[in-house]
Amino acid sequence: MFSLINGVRARTFVALVLFLFVTVFNSSCSGRKFNLPKKELSLTDSRGNTVKVTAEIASSDEERNYGFMNRKSIPDGTGMLFVFENDRTLSFWMKNTPHPLSIAYIDSTGKIADIFDMVPFSLSSVVSTRSVRFALEVPQGWFEKEGISEGSRVLFADGTALRDYSAER
């Protein structure tokens, strides 16, 4: 009888330890936070009007892969700029992203090539129509509301070109 009780206790203890491990591991992965640098961007429409957005800068593979996943909110006037080392066709999806977003694909000169709306949680790829260097995600409808369209220009608010961004922190 004593060995049966010890066996039950041992199995219960092992199950509890495994449960705690899985819970801690899952919460650390799903709540991943990056301390991304923030920069103000200036976007200029075809009439020369300028609007600003405060963007988190995602420049590493891990930061770019995680993006806005699992965010509870994305305030208006904010976004995320994805910086790549060279021009390429870019493809984004909305896995684990609960907020509708709009994405602008931007070439190395800072010109917006494409703007697309993206559906929350969608695993469908949203692909740029040509080679670009950057992508800017904002709450869905922000570009339209601010009069920003394909052909608009993007640079850092201090006048620095996007292509001159250095990821050194």
Architecture overview:
The protein has helices at 2-30, 61-66, 142-145; strands at 38-44, 50-58, 78-88, 91-92, 101-106, 112-118, 126-127, 132-139, 153-156. It has two domains: 1-30; 38-164, Sandwich (Jelly Rolls), CATH 2.60.120.1140. It has 169 residues and is α+β, with helices and mostly antiparallel strands. It has a seven-stranded mixed β-sheet. Strand 5 and strand 6 form a beta hairpin. The relative contact order is 0.18. Helices cover 23% and strands 33% of the residues. The chain contains three helices and nine strands; from the N terminus they run H-E-E-H-E-E-E-E-E-E-H-E. It is globular.
What's the CATH topology name of the largest domain?
Jelly Rolls
Strand content: 25-35%
Shape: globular
Helical amount among residues, as a percent range? 10-25%
Rg measurement, Å? 21 Å
Count of individual beta strands:
9
Q: What is the H/E order?
A: HEEHEEEEEEHE
Q: Which CATH class of the largest domain?
A: Mainly Beta
pLDDT average, as an integer? 86
Total of domains: 2
**Largest sheet, strands/sense/barrel:** 7 strands, mixed
Poorly predicted tracts of residues: 14-31
Task: Give the full name of the CATH homologous superfamily of the largest domain.
Answer: Protein of unknown function DUF192
Q: Give the number of helices.
A: 3
Distance between the termini: 63 Å
Strands side by side in the biggest sheet: 6-5-8-3-2-1-9
CATH level-two architecture of the largest domain: Sandwich
Classification by helices and strands: alpha+beta
